[in-house]
Structure formats: structure tokens, C-alpha cells
Amino acid sequence: MNTDFPLPDNELQRLAALRRYNILDTLPDHAFDDATKLVSYICGVPIAHISFIDEARQWFKSEIGIGVSEVPREISFCQYTILESEMVEINDTFLNDKFKDDPNVTGGFKIRFYAGIPLTTPDGYNIGTLCALDHVSKELNENQRNALSIIAKHVINQLELGTKNIELDRQKKIAERAVLAKDSFLANMSHEIRTPLNAIIGFTDLLAQTKLDEVQEDYVDSVQIAGENLLLIINDILDLSKIESGNLTIEAAPFNLKKTLKHVYNLLKVKVPKDVEFNLFLDADMPENVVGDQGRLNQILVNLIGNALKFTNEGEVTVSVKNVEETEDSYALRFSVKDTGIGIPKDKLKSIFERFTQAEDSTTRRFGGTGLGLSIVKQLIELHKAEIHVKSREEVGSEFFFVFTYKKATAKEAVSKAASGNNLGKLKILLCEDNILNQKLAASVIQNFGFELDIATNGEEGIELLSKNTYDLVLMDLQMPVKDGYQTTEYIRNEMNMTIPIIAMTAHSLVGEQERCFKAGMDAYVPKPFKQAFLLKTIKTVMTKDVDAPQKRVIDFSFLEEMACGDENFKNEMIGLFIEKIPEQSEQLLEALKNNDHETVRRTAHNMKSSIDIFMLTDLALCLSIIEEEASKGEFTTEIADKINIVHCGIEEVVKVLKEL
Amino acid sequence: MRIILAEDNDILRKSLSFFLESKGFVVDQFSDGKDALEAIESNHYDLILTDINMPGVSGMEITQHVRQSINSDIPIIILTSSGVEQTELDSFDIGANEFIAKPISPAVLLVRINKLLKTRA
């Protein structure tokens, strides 16, 4: 390197070290300004700075009394300081051979006193300096020198902290991306597994309702139990991932507590070993109705009781609920599950709540289970802002308990008895579902209800049927080829302008999906595998609900008004021209599509787009762009036909709105 | 200042003409590229504003003709509507001064026109 200034031996590595901190040409920073002030106070000097030296310049991160942001490296005093390992102090520059003729001594900054300490990185490179300067000669005392070294160390720490923060941030982003990937993998996997499982469970259900001999009944029973167990495991895994990603929320809806507990009791009664007594003790003043998350309470209790029954060979398993505190608007209820089972060793009392852990490694083999249950229970209880407690002695038994606070249900909220009977008449239902097994399953269930059913294997077909026939209701699978449930619903709502009730059916169960369904314009949501009763209830709800009037399109005239420069007559003239021409072009587009005339489609779409742009109908403009682009390739896809339909409907609507002006 | 405007969409052409006339320009408008080219050959214009995609003669053909056959350096602004056209134009050195993507912002168009007319003045 050919330079006019001395270079440290390790100049290249030094510059690399400097660049790692990414500090050059950054904005001022309080931490550095404070350090500079400290230097000035402690040394009693009018000039102080923190600077970094790159190939060509000394750049001031922070300065007092200098007033410029950088100086050429060759005129800086500090070019020498970074060659040293210790502080450089020049008490009087006039007496120093190296500096007495320096332009910044004889003129310029008029420096008489210089004290500079190299800023040394942890790996030993001097990337800059911390300096105190004065216009008069001076000598620092020992304390001031020590203070300068300490501040220099702090400056380097500050730099290190900055890079560590950036690195942390980067790692955090990587981690977040990984979690997202895991979540969507789990959701997809669970979908893939649940779709066929849905069919297995559903058909077994139907099979069980047919006439079977004893052996067959036994087989069907076994299939049912295995299917349900498999579903439980999948749900466990999914729940855990939802809890971990913060996607699981606790609902607050009124429910009948007594009924819920009895239901859990009846559900698990069948699993009680023959030498075990299974009891449910309810406090006399336990409330009938509360506001909370029924489903999650159910899940917690099933898990805890299931465990208790699994690990108890003789004696008893007792579930008790006690009203421990009642305030004006809430109850605190203590739920307890107590058994006389094998118990848990003391040193395992904590680890049983970790996932994939059971009290002994061999437990998994001896007792089965995923090892996820207690981990989920603990987290669900914590989501209720409560804590799970466990008392246990080996060979004596265990007790798990927790205290939930539930809001009181107002009289109005008290769960009303479901309207009985099917008073909906003979509904005509359209089912959009691609999976043949699920189609058959839904078909037989719906026929059981006494409704009429048409089936479309994808959204495209659904739309076609919907435009030909009259239906009372649409059942919509979300994942379908060609056009998925969301797209189909949006099309039905926005392009066909139909208010027909749509119920989403999905094996996906990530939180947020329900909102997405509602946003797309669906009225209700039934998770798969669906229970017959729940589906019927949902159908009743949407059929009796008043459906809001669809929103009308609002047209933005700001572009046309800008063109018209405020001339109302011209604006109206253009609107008139649009109303006159565009429906004709829209017809031409449909006609050309029918005739497979690519060139006319391309040309017409291109021309229409210019008109559509003027009325700022960006959705339609986008469709037209796609139509034009696809048509220029010389082939019509189903997407084109679809887009042309959207444009046609959209234009009809726009023209209607414009005519009403 | 006299501008020739070639654009086949009636509403857009009329709106652009109205807008530019409101800003003090004289605008001759054509919906067909061939007619526009004839007008360019027989009249004096200060600026050409043309859509790229037109029946008859395209905006690119107009530009080529003006630059190569008429040998004029009159400012030319081409209106494009798709990304595809834009890339095509970018790779082509056909001699236009500006490309403006649709939808055209009237304000941006005005700035570009004024800039082109000023640098010539």
C-alpha cells in the first residue's frame, strides 16, 4: 500500500475488525455522546472525541469541540495512537518534535495538549481512539488516566453489545421462522392424517348403525376405539404446538358445569378396571352454570382422570369439585383427581409435566400414551391463569388438583335448551368436497337428517351448480383442487353476490382459520371429523340467522376527477361513455372466450383495462391483466374463464352503481 | 405547445386530452396508429404521446418510423400497460424518451411532459 501515513502491521485485519462493528457513518448515539462528555469533564478539556480510523479517514462517532464529522487520516494525531498499545499523552505539542510543525498545532485546531487511548477490540485490534485535547499545555493525573482507560473499555463493550444484539436479532428471526415452519408442517400433517381418519371414524360410525352379528360388532367396536385413540394422539400433538406458538386461546362462554362433569364421568366410566371404584363428588353449592371454556376443562379432566385410571389397579379414583370461594361475580372452584395407584417418586414430581416424559422410562412401554398429556394439561391450566398441584406417594397414590376462577353466568346467559326436533323442512344442500370418502360420509349423514344433497368435487363445480340451481345452504370443504373453499366463498359473495349461508368444514384446526373463514364470508365453521349433532346444530343456527345485506361496491372517482380538473360535466360525460361501452365489451369478452378466439380476448381485455383503470377498479383491472397475459400465450385455462366471469359480474355491478348516481 | 395523442381506448384518450388541454396544451387525438402517423408526417408537433398497443400501427412502430424514416428527434412518451411490454421496451433501444406505465397518473404525466419540453427549449 502506498500511503503518506504509517500503517499498523495488521492493517488489513484491523480494517476487517472495524467493519465487523458496522459503526462507520452511523447516526449519533447517546451512549457514545455520554462517554465523550465524561472524558471532557474528567480531564477538564474543551475538546474530546471517540473516533474510528478506516483506510482513509478518521471518523468521529461522537465529538465535543471539533465540529466536523471526519478528517483525512494523514492529518490526524490518532493515526499514531492506533500503532500503540497504551495511552499516548503529549503534554505540550510545541515541545514535541513530531508535532510541533503539524498544521493542527500551528493553525487549524491549535492543539497544545493531546491524550489518546486506542480502542482495542477483544481480539486485539486498535480500530479507533478515545481522546482528550486542549489548546493549552496540560498533564493528566493518575486518576484521569485510569478513568480514560475505563471509558475506552466501556466504549468497546458498547460496540460489542451492538453486534451481539444484531446477532441475537438475527438468531431470533431464524428461530421464529423455524417455529412457523414447524407449525405449518404440523397443521398440514394433521390435516393429511385427519382427512382419512375422519372417513374411518365416520364410516365406522355408520357401519355400527347397521345390522351386525356379535363378532362383527366386536370388530367394529375395536376399529372405533382405535380410531378415536389415534385422533386423540393427533389432537394432543396439535394442541401442544398451538399452545407453544401462542395460538391457543381460552374461550369464555356460558356452559353447564354439572352436565360437563357428568359427561366426563360417563365417558370414562367404561375404562374403569374392575377392582377400582370410580367416584364423582360434587359440592352441594357448586354452581350449575358458569362462564368459561368448556372444551378445555373437559380435556384437562379427561386427561387427568384417564391417567389416574391407567395407573390404578385397585382401590379408587375420585373426582371432586368444591366451591372454595364465591364473590359477587365469580366462583373459585377446586377440581381434584385423586387415586390409589402406583404413585410418583418424589424426584419425578416435576419432570412428569415435561413432554415425552413419564415417571419411569419403561412406563411408556408398560402403560402406553404419548407422554404429552400432562404437559398439555399443565399448559392449559396455566392458560386459565391457574396452577396445577400434585401430591403423591409411591405405592399409596396421587392427587392432582387446581383452582379455576369462573365468571358467574347471568340468568340470560344460562345455557338454553337446544330447540328440539328438525323444524327446518327439507333443505336443499350443496356440498363442495373433493375427497370421495368424505363425500359419501357427509352424504349419508345429511340424508339421515332428511335433507336433499348435491355434491361438487371442487369450488369450480360448486359455483356452476350454484348458478344453475337453487340451494338453501352450502357446506364447503376448505382444501380442494382448482378452487379452494376460501376462493369459492369469495367468488360466491363478491362476484355472484349471493347471501346463501355457507358452512366451512375442515380438518385444519389452527387458530386463525376460523377468522379466515368468517373474513371470506362464511357463516359458520364445523371442524372435521364432525359430529352429526354438531353439524345439525350449526345448520339450524345459520338457517335461522338473519343474513346481512351484501355490501355495495363504492366507486373511487378521484382519478377521473383529477383528469377532469374539476369539470363535473366532463366527468359525467366520461361516466356516460363508460356505461355505454363497457357492458358491450364485457359481452364481447364472453363471446370470444366461447369461440376460443384468443386474439379478440387479448385485445378486448387490454382495451377494457384502460377504462377500468379510470374508475380505479383495481380488482377487475388485475383480472383483466391476467386475462390479457394468458390470452397472449394462446391458450385458455380454467383460470381465464373464471376471471372473465368475475369481470363480467363485477362490471354488471359497477354499471348498476353508476346508473344509480 | 402542440401534442399528438394516439390511444385506442376512447375514455382514456378523451380524459387525457381534456386534462392536457386544461393545462394549456393543444392536443390532436387519434384512436388509430396509422392516422396518427399520417398526422405526424404532415404537421408540426412538439411532443408525441402514444399507447404501445394499438390497432393498425403500434406505438413502437410509430417511434421507429419517426426516428428512422422522418429522422426527427421530437420527444416521444410511450404508454405501456403490462410488465411484459415494459421489459420488451427496456431491451429495445427504439428511441422513445420516456415510458409511462398505466394506470397513468396525470400529475406524473404532466411533470414528464414539461421536463421533456423544457430540456428541448
UniProtKB/TrEMBL annotation, chain A:
Query: This chain belongs to which protein, by name?
Result: Sensory/regulatory protein RpfC
What Gene Ontology molecular function terms does this protein carry?
Answer: ATP binding; phosphorelay sensor kinase activity
GO CC list: plasma membrane
* Keyword set, alphabetical order: ATP-binding, Cell membrane, Kinase, Membrane, Nucleotide-binding, Phosphoprotein, Transferase, Transmembrane, Transmembrane helix, Two-component regulatory system
| Residues modified as Phosphohistidine | 606
Q: Which InterPro entries match?
A: CheY-like_superfamily, GAF-like_dom_sf, HATPase_C_sf, HATPase_dom, His_kinase_dom, HisK_dim/P_dom, HisK_dim/P_sf, HPT_dom_sf
Which regions form coiled coils? none
Among SUPFAM superfamilies, the record links this protein to:
ATPase domain of HSP90 chaperone/DNA topoisomerase II/histidine kinase (SSF55874), CheY-like (SSF52172), GAF domain-like (SSF55781), Histidine-containing phosphotransfer domain, HPT domain (SSF47226), Homodimeric domain of signal transducing histidine kinase (SSF47384)
Give the Gene3D superfamilies listed for this entry: 1.10.287.130, 3.30.450.40, 3.40.50.2300, Histidine kinase-like ATPase, C-terminal domain, HPT domain
Domain of life of the native organism: Bacteria
The membrane topology noted for this protein in its Swiss-Prot or TrEMBL record is: Multi-pass membrane protein
Q: Per the database record, which ranges form the Response regulatory domain?
A: 428-543
Q: Which organism is it from?
A: Flavobacterium cutihirudinis
List, for all copies, the residue spans of the domain called Histidine kinase: 188-408
Q: Which PROSITE patterns match?
A: HIS_KIN, HPT, RESPONSE_REGULATORY
Q: What class of enzyme is it?
A: transferase
According to its UniProt record, which reaction does this protein catalyse?
Answer: ATP + protein L-histidine = ADP + protein N-phospho-L-histidine
Record text on subunit structure and interactions? At low DSF concentrations, interacts with RpfF.
| PANTHER family per UniProt | HYBRID SIGNAL TRANSDUCTION HISTIDINE KINASE J
Location in the cell: Cell membrane
From TrEMBL, chain B:
Which Pfam family, any one of them, does this sequence belong to? Response_reg
Output the GO biological process annotations, alphabetical, semicolon-separated: regulation of DNA-templated transcription
- Which InterPro entries is this protein grouped with? CheY-like_superfamily, Sig_transdc_resp-reg_receiver, WalR-like
Q: Give GO cellular component annotations, separated by semicolons.
A: cytosol; protein-DNA complex
What Gene Ontology molecular-function terms does this entry list? phosphorelay response regulator activity; transcription cis-regulatory region binding
Protein keywords: DNA-binding, Phosphoprotein, Transcription, Transcription regulation, Two-component regulatory system
Membrane-spanning parts: none
| Record-listed 4-aspartylphosphate modification sites | 51
Q: Which residues form the Response regulatory domain?
A: 2-117
What is the name attached to this protein's record?
Response regulator receiver domain-containing protein
**Originating species:** Flavobacterium cutihirudinis
The upper taxonomy is: Bacteria, Pseudomonadati, Bacteroidota, Flavobacteriia, Flavobacteriales
